[in-house]
Amino acid sequence: MRSTYVRPVTPDDLSLAIQIAQIDPIANCFLISKLIDFNPTDTQILFVSDRDKNLGLAYVGINTTTANCSYEMLTHLADYLMQAPIATSSIVGKREDVFGLWQQVSSFLGSARLIRSDQPLLFLDKSPLIAPNTQVRLATIDELEKVLPVAAMMFREEVGIDPLRPATRAVYQSRVLELLQNQRTFVLTDENEIIFKVDIGVQSDTVIQIQGVWVAPSHRGQRISAPALAAAVVQMRKRVPTVSLYVNDFNYRALRLYRSLGFEQVGTFASVML
User: Which residues contact 259 (CB under 8 A, 6 or more apart)?
Assistant: First the structure.
């Protein structure tokens, strides 16, 4: 029996759904981006309600996340998911929401491959405090063969899995190509070699969430990351006013980098990877 507390968002609901997500535009950047690009046949974006008819949101897919959900709503969402199991690879979002949902779905989703319980959510809505390296630019589609191994190296360092293994290579390459086609990958090169890269992972109407900040091993410790990232942020803020990201709490070097540019913490994320 389907939960009466969970239902798909429809085209007629979009205005209300966006209003709910905009309660926290930085934390809900991913959900807002999905609502902006809403497909009427999409059943992955859900309203979740409680006994008092308060509303929250959830996106249920390869990545699962929630917005404005109370613990009761998370319980109803868990019941819904048990009736319609999903092929999700991660639960990501505000820490209290992630663990509120995870403790109720872990019994049927299986063991977590990796849990990151403390990921500061940072934002910058003004010019960086570091002078930008003006050589940073958008990567082009023609550079796919250079960007792909760099992106894969970053993925292996961060997640511990090789995305270029036969089972996932085609999907991963398609994702990297999509970023290039949409002008979402910024690079710095030295003698035709990529030595710095950062991607726009998610973009809403007011917030960009960046991912994949990477420096070539041969150039680490040479102080290129701060000016390079500052340049990318300057270019991103020509599109939207705010740039954000979340980072593992134990990545002290990255935290120092982001704070040196002026990023401030606005919340805490967590990730459960399956």
Answer: 122
pLDDT in tens, 3-42: 789 999 999 999 999 999 999 999 999 999 999 999 888 8
Cα angle 83-19-56, degrees, rounded to a multiple of 5 = 25
Range of the domain at 63: 6-110
Kindly state whether residue 132 falls inside one of the protein's structural domains.
no
Q: What is the pLDDT of residues 61-83, one digit of tens each?
A: 999 999 999 999 999 999 999 88
Q: In this structure, how many other beta carbons lie within 10 angstroms of the beta carbon of residue 211?
A: 18
Give the largest Cα separation in the chain, rounded: 62
Note the pTM of the prediction, 2 decimals. Answer: 0.94
Q: How far apart are CA 123 and CA 207, in angstroms?
A: 9
Using CA of residue 157, residue 158, residue 159, residue 162, what is the dihedral sign?
Answer: negative
Residue 170 lies in a domain: yes
Angle of the 252-261 helix axis to the 225-236 helix axis, nearest 10: 50
Q: How many CA atoms lie within 13 A of 123 on its CB side?
A: 17
